[in-house]
TrEMBL record:
Alphabetized InterPro entries for the sequence: MCP_dom_sf, MCP_transmembrane, Mito_Metabolite_Transporter
Sequence ranges of the Solcar repeats: 36-120, 128-210
Main location: membrane
Gene Ontology cellular-component annotations: membrane
Protein name, as recorded: Mitochondrial substrate carrier family protein
Source organism per UniProt: Arabidopsis thaliana (Mouse-ear cress)
Residue intervals passing through the bilayer: none
This protein's UniProt keywords: Membrane, Repeat, Transmembrane, Transmembrane helix, Transport
Keyword Transmembrane helix on entry: yes
Length: 226
């Protein structure tokens, strides 16, 4: 469930006598609201990550089969059984620490930045139509991924090496490959996150606006559930 991301109101016309005055409102969302979005969304994503992490480990092992070589590929079930037999149940949670760290940061940032970004577009262009919402979501997703990509790189390295330690792995990456190695794959990751966040948040935001306008639903739990 995502918090209130309703379009901001820039001003309210107030008629006094023969003159129409514009009564400005604060365009910047309250700091407490931004922090609330960040915290709730970050914790939610972290909980989901904790439950689904074994699937992520299996996915990475599937993708990294026979790197640089040819050979018969093992399916998902085969990889899972291989992990359990050779490395034990704990292997299904390799890289969990960086995974949870990234979840809190990425999940919190992409949802926490959406509303302020939308407000900035409204201030600049005077509109919060669906295209603005798509652009806001795309920026929030891409920016969040760019910041958290190093944690994702470390997570994948740990998932491939059961004996690795997070801090030691970071030092090894920087010393052997340079600090730029922490941003390997950031381009495709940003494109994916931009498309994903834009489609999710813009759709949710616009659907909520239509429901408020055309039904008796008001801001609250039932509206978010719909």
């Amino acid at each position: 469930m995502i918090g209130d991301i309703s379009p901001p109101v820039t001003s309210i016309p107030v008629v006094e006598g023969n003159e129409e005055l514009r009564k400005p409102q604060n365009l910047i969302p309250p700091f407490s609201k931004v922090v609330s979005h960040f915290g709730i969304s970050g914790i939610s994503v972290a909980l989901a990550t904790g439950v689904t992490h074994p699937l992520d480990v299996v996915k990475v092992r599937l993708q990294m089969q026979h790197v640089g070589q040819r050979g018969p590929l093992i399916g998902m079930t085969g990889i899972f059984l291989q992990l359990m037999k050779n490395e034990g149940r704990r292997s299904l949670y390799l890289g969990l620490t960086p995974a949870l760290t990234r979840s809190v940061l990425y999940g919190g940032l992409r949802l926490g930045l959406y509303e302020p970004t939308k407000v900035s577009f409204d201030w600049a262009f005077g509109s919060t139509n669906v295209l603005v919402k798509i652009a806001s979501g795309a920026f929030a997703g891409a920016f969040s991924t760019a910041l958290t990509n190093p944690v994702e790189v470390v997570k994948v390295r740990l998932q491939m090496n059961p004996n690795a330690v997070p801090i030691a792995e970071v030092r090894e990456i920087v010393s052997k490959e340079g600090i730029g190695a922490l941003w390997k794959g950031v381009g495709p990751a940003m494109v994916r996150a931009a498309a994903l966040t834009a489609s999710q948040l813009a759709t949710y935001d616009e659907a909520k606006r239509i429901l408020v306008k055309r039904t008796s639903l008001e801001e609250g739990f039932h509206l978010h559930l719909w």
